Amino acid sequence: MIRQRLLIAMGVLCSLVYLIGCVDDFNADIYTSKEYLLVDGTLTDLNEPQYVSIFSTPKDASFKSSDFTSKIYPARQSYFPEQQALVKLIINQKDEIQLEERLAGYYYCPNGFRAKAGNTYQLRFQLANGKVYETDVETMYSVPAIKNVSEDFNLTGIPNVAGSSTTVSSNDIYVDFDDAPNEKNFYRWRWVNWEIQRICATCTQGRYYLFETEQGETGDCYRDLTLKVNDRFDYYCGTRCWDIFYSSDINILSDVYTNGKPQKNRLAAQIPLRQSNPCLVSLQQMSLSPNTYRYLKLLQDQSINTGTLADTPPAPLRGNIRNVKDANELVLGYFSASSVSEVRVMLDRRNTTGGLPNGLYSFINNRPVTLEELSNERPDVPLAICQPSFTRTPIPPLGWR
Question: Who contacts 52 (Cβ-Cβ below 8 Å, separation ≥6)?
Answer without folding.
Answer: 39, 40, 41, 87, 99, 106, 107, 123, 335
